Amino acid sequence: MAASETQLSAVVKLGSEAWPELVGVSKLKPGYCDSCHNYFKVNFQHRVTHLRLNMHPDGGISRLRVYGVGQRDWSSVSTNQDVDLVALTNGGVCLGYSDAHFGHPRNMIGLGRAANMGDGWETARRLDRPTHLKVDQRGILEVPGWEWAVFRLGRPGVISSIEVDTNHFKGNFPDSCRIEACSLTPEDEAQSIATRWSSLKWQILLPPQKLRPHHRHLYGEAELTLTRPMSHIRLVIAPDGGVSRLRLWGRPVRTTVASTNQPTANSKL
C-alpha cells in the first residue's frame, strides 16, 4: 500500500532528511536463517522519538528492532501527579538479579498485565529449602534463602503505592516478598553493579508481605515505610517463584536526591 498525498505532505513537514544520522550506510546480509539478523551499534546520547529508515536501492526488510532505554519527557509531568516510576515506558531499567531461569525480571515492568508466565520473572527452585517448613506469626515461611532483582527508577521520586502481580503463577508463586529502596549517584550505581549489589545499605520500603497465587497485591501508604525520594529499588522474593508485574506509583522529583550509599555488613545479599 502506497502512502497517500496527505501522508506524504505530513512526512515532508517533519524535515526528516536533515535528521542526525544514527547508523551510516551499512551492508546487509541475505535473509537466510544464519545471516538474516543484522545488528548495528549506535553511539547517540540524545533522546529520540522518531526514526527514518532508508534502504538502497530497493528490496525488502522483514523486521526493524530498536533497542535502548525509554526516556519520558518529564518536563510535561506534574510533581503532583502519580506515575509508575519503574515502568519500562517511563525509563525503568533492571540493573541486576540473582536468578532468571524461566523469565527475566525486566518483564515485570512491561506494558499491561502479563500474557503468560513467560511474560514475567520466574526463578529456578532453590535447593536450600529446609526439610521441615516453619511459619512466623504472619504465616510467612521461615526459609534461609531468597531471590532478588534491582531496578533503577525512570525518575527519582516518593513512592506512595505498590502493585505486585502474581498473575498466571498458581503453583509456583513466591511465599512472600519485600521491597527495599535507596538513592544512588551514577558513580554509586556503577560501583554497585561491579560488586553485584553486595554491599549497599538498603532501606525497607515495603516490609515482608505474604503473597497469594494468581493475584494482584496492592499496597498503599499504610504499608510503606519511606516517605523521601528514592532512585533504586530491590524486589526480594522468598524462597523463589514467579512475579508477573511490578508497579511503583509515586510522584517524581526534579531535584537531585542525596545518596544513601553507606555500605554496612548487614546489607549484604
From TrEMBL:
Superkingdom as given in the UniProt entry: Eukaryota
Single annotated GO MF: allantoicase activity
InterPro entries: Allantoicase, Allantoicase_dom, Galactose-bd-like_sf
A Gene Ontology BP annotation from the UniProt entry: allantoin catabolic process
Gene3D superfamilies: Galactose-binding domain-like (2.60.120.260)
One Pfam family here: Allantoicase
Domain Allantoicase span(s) in chain numbering: 11-69, 91-252
Family, as annotated: Belongs to the allantoicase family.
This protein's name: Allantoate amidinohydrolase
Record organism: Pleuronectes platessa (European plaice)
